[in-house]
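Hi W.,

Here's what went into the run:
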Amino acid sequence: MSELVIKDLHVNVEDKEILKGLNLTVRQGEVNALMGPNGSGKSTLAYALMGHPSYEVTAGEVWFKGQNILELEPDERAHLGLFLAFQYPVAVPGVTVANFLRTAINAHRKAKDPEDKGISIPEFRRLLIEKMNTLKMDHSFAGRYLNDGFSGGEKKRAEILQLAALQPEIAILDETDSGLDIDALRIVSEGVNALRGPELGVLVITHYQRILNYIQPDHVHIMLDGLIVESGGPELALYLEENGYDAIRAKHNGVPA
Ligand code: ADP
Ligand code: MG
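Here's what came out:
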């Protein structure tokens, strides 16, 4: 079983410390929800894990399959079996979803075995159809040009299909920034619910408090001001839904927000 182990992670953005010694483990086979108010540093964690150059890791380690992935390039992290949303270019003109996925699968195969000749067209087609059926996606989606006029929801669908096709051990899925929150969370949650199983570990990142309407996480982690302040089961999400982030804040700061 693989696990992603984040130890004492400190991350600066523009010389300001945003993550302040974060610890978190995500195991294969388990669905984790990372929840926290806007500005608590959730996306900073996702960007730092993906190796975005604007997010400067000043201390800490992130272990996955015996390697500290902070020492690896972003594509090496992906080839190792870590899926991070937006790990590929956002707009790819003239490339269909299917072509894009096939290229991504082949890049992973080649990273594992330089002699690999790539997935055959019939094998790829079988895989794609199986995954689109699992996700209850219209097959025409595979023929669309990637992100060309995609709505926020369609971008999320493409991301989930990519997750399904690449079959990573651990996936980190950050919510979109804008008002699409609930729609995006619904699409991501339906995808995760369809794909969840012993092979896949997931970290779903959201600030949306009523997450239990969409997904039943095995573990819930609450983040405040660059740190995970509480971890628990689904009951923690329920507590949050009833009491809000202010209650968590009051508990941890000793003062009402
Ligand atoms: P969340 O995803 O939990 O809403 P973020 O990680 O996006 O939180 O932001 C945490 C803090 O880091 C905020 O104060 C935000 O302004 C700052 N921050 C994040 N990314 C950037 C960036 N690229 N440039 C400047 N500040 C940033
Ligand atoms: Mg965010």
